[in-house]
Amino acid sequence: MYGQGILKGLFVTFKHFFNTYVDDLRYAGRKYFRQDNFEIRQGLKAQGAFTVQYPDEKIAVPERFRFTPFLVVNDDDHPEAPGEDWCTSCGICAKVCPPQCIWIVRGSDPATGRPIPQPTAFFIDIDICMNCGFCAEFCPFDAIKMDHDYEMASYDRTRNHIHDKERLSKPLSYWKTIAPTTALEEAIARGGWEHPDVIKAMKKQGKTPVEPTIDNMWPKAPVTDADEIADKAPAAAVASSTKQAEVAGDVKTQDVLPEDPEKAARLAKREAALARKRAAAGGMPSSEPTTVAEAAPAEQVAEPAVVVDTQANAGPDATPAGGGKPKFDKQAMLEKIRQKKAQKGG
Amino acid sequence: MVDYPIEVTDVSAAVTSLKQKFPEYIQEDTRQGYSGIIVDRNYLVEVARMLRDELGFDYLSSATAVDYYGISDHMEMVYHAYRTAGGPALVFKAQTPRDNAEIPSLIDVWPGADFQEREAYDLYGIRFPGHPNLKRILLWEGFEGHPMRKDWKEPYYTEEHKPFDSRWPDGWVYRAEERNVYGKNVQYPADFDLSKLTDRSEEALYSELGLGVSIQELDSDEALKTDRLVVNMGPHHPSTHGVFRMIVTLNGETIESLEPVMGYLHRNHEQIGERNTFLHNMPFTDRLDYISSMGNNLGYALAVEQLLSKGTRYQPPTYRAEVIRVLMTELTRIVNHYWAIGFLLNDLGAFFTPALYAIAEREKILDFFEATAGSRMMCNYMRFGGVFKDLPERIHSVAAKINDMMRDYDTMDYLTELINERIPRSIDELDTFLTDSEIIKARTIGVGYLPPEMAIAYSAAGPLLRASGVPYDVRRADPYSIYPELDFDVAVRYNGDIYDRYLIRLDEMRESVRILKQLLPRLERTKGEPIFAGNKQHTPRVPLGESYGRVENPKGELGFYVVSAGDEKGPQNPWRYHVRAPSFINLTPLGPMCVGHKVADVVAILGSIDIVLGETDR
Ligand code: SF4
Ligand code: SF4
Questions:
Q1: What is the average per-residue pLDDT within A46-55?
Q2: Which residue range(s) make up the domain with B499?
Q3: A61-173 maps to CATH 3.10.20.30
Q4: Which of A43, A121, A149 sits opposite B407 (nearest CB)?
Q5: Ligand 1 pocket mutation pick from A144, A165, A195, A299 by most atoms within 8 angstroms of CB
Q6: Where are the domains of chain A?
Q7: Is B560's pLDDT higher than 50?
Q8: What is the mean predicted confidence (pLDDT) over B474-503?
Q9: pTM (2 decimals)?
Q10: CA of B168: which chain A residue's CA is closest?
Q11: Which residues lie below 8 Å from residue B470, measured CB to CB, with a gap of 6+?
């Protein structure tokens, strides 16, 4: 009969129409307000429409999802070296990056000019980044990972879309949150939760790093009252925090503007962690550089302790110690960058 | 199918008989890592004719140019000819000096060389005497130079090869626009006056097609007097699946001629590819046919692996890696055909209901891709000698943003349910929904007919070729990966019209499901086995030579011609990186297919070819 095919097709349409409302009936009109039906609605048993009501609902992305990269740094309450970069500025990510959107300034010791395993600056132009994930895949230090934050629209591409080191850095705990299984697998491959160089240094000293398991993924809360220490910390740590910041080559620690409470909180947390560490070391400030150097990735540096000292005291940009909170001079740094650029571009 | 005068079984026998006939004009290509023959360009057409008519190499898969500037200072055209009966390629080349480069056109032997020769002219400046319509195809007339020549530099030129030295260890960031001021970053040909920008190419186009009313024809004694009219369909037209233009000459509603115009999405993918290192190209292949990135990845991986296997330290992918590769590419085929069928129906005027029903299941497959490869469409999953990572244990997510909703499934359960239940069910549903519909039949049966001889001659590939009754499928004709051990049939239909192209996609999806079902036990069996035999390397040293890796992509045969040359130690960057793009070459027969049909049919015929402009324009 002519028209039978069309009727058959219309029946399919009707079935879809009907299925669309089955869920509404089943969940009595509260289909979009419940987590428990989401997995079913979005899963393999789903029937009918499975629209996601973005932005009221978002599908949490799977672990391996890749958007733009971020740099892993130590947690802010890391007992040895809070906020320390994992990146050793080895440059592999910059080499494997297909559109060449990673720019790294390798740190160097101003006294000897020898390279040190810390990036002075690290930029990723996220307009150019093609989200391929090679940088994360081939970084030998697990120091760069793919972020899940895909909501990055902004009004000014020229300024906001080149992420600098500060913008890129996120603590290891963040990586553990967004990709727990992968983070654990990687830690097992490294042989510990710490940076590979720290693990290597520990092994050299005959210490065995804690074997990573799902149970020790999240460190126990510190014994000392963090807030109390954080209160005392700034005063106690002025002199050495300059050093610490220089060692880490970490702009972030210094660049604190009073109106940024989040950053201030992070800094306070780091100060607290450092204070705890000093307390554990018996309040001997002199022991500090050595410990830091131990904790710092030390692959290419023969005498880390010495390097640390020279840099802190004789570095051209070193803020005079004891002068209160060091102020990061952004203008000076920009000027330096411009000079470099002019030289290179010339 | 056809009885050839000389019964030849393999390529070397064919080469021998060629040499007997043309002793002086044919040499073996003896360069390290190369194969095939070099033909004296003055005898190219004769040799090609003999290849086609007497030796059975009736299918010209790829024709492309290479510039050996700085190595031996000549350019050459490389042709890959196959038998539609199956078997390996016969590679033949013709060389020309770089100045006044000229190679005779093979368009009379294989009309499928049409667009490919125009592309070589456009990008390399090789002229093809005998080509009736030799003009730029991907670039416009106001473009200075031929960008694939090795001595051509782009406006944002940084360095010859990646990785660029400016990125490390002293990588102070700058944006390329800061150094290349907008407006001063373009060059025009010397005689090109921008102030009087009239596109002379268009004029020529229209005059060729005959613009306006012809008095003689109006005076003719046809019953219905109709004007001849030139209509531009596209570049911005919803039916063109992107930015694509068809210049159509109409007589009333009937099409007299049709000329495709493309290149609006051109980015010189191949030039980028030659600056890149071998690995860098992998994510770039995702952006070719972005519906089926897994297949693109595999094609490129095969091409480079062919080169790598000439070295000593190369280890082929493990069995599990091969199983996963086939799993991914077959899922991709299903994804692509859902898309193709859905959007064919859009083109027929069934706006979006069938398309949405078709691509609903695609979401589930993409969820799996996302959990495994990290991205739904830009998968970047294959590596040389393996894959990026093994399948995850579970497809699960962790809430990290506000309003995040989580999901958690066991991967193998998910796959099993998908392959055994959901995909077959939805294919059947599409079948019930569309196949018998009288409207679809009326619109598609007998429209856009492509006879088999023509399909072969025009180098059509994939469903377009097989719907015309040519059972040519690279998975069977020139097998790769683990396809030889898998049990499936090459789908073939014989009417060569839109309806059959729709049906063959359903058939192919069913065959893919059949393959996928065989993969499930293999996946279970190999669980836990490594996916890499050797180490994953980011900058492999690739031995010198050439290779042509080809796969049966959902849209047709996708080939990568890769040359590794120059550096004796094995270069890091491909000297030549060419993509034989099915979406591009399948457009060659579009004009002839449309002639005599109505305007509305053009849209459907184009939809039935199934192109993606990312691949067409490259
Ligand atoms: S590869 Fe890793 S360690 Fe090396 S520069 Fe990049 S982020 Fe740093
Ligand atoms: S994701 Fe890819 S493109 Fe982006 S920075 Fe990393 S390597 Fe470069």
A1: 79
A2: 269-535+542-617
A3: no
A4: A43
A5: A144
A6: 1-59, 61-173, 218-346
A7: yes
A8: 89
A9: 0.82
A10: A104
A11: B84, B452, B455, B456, B492
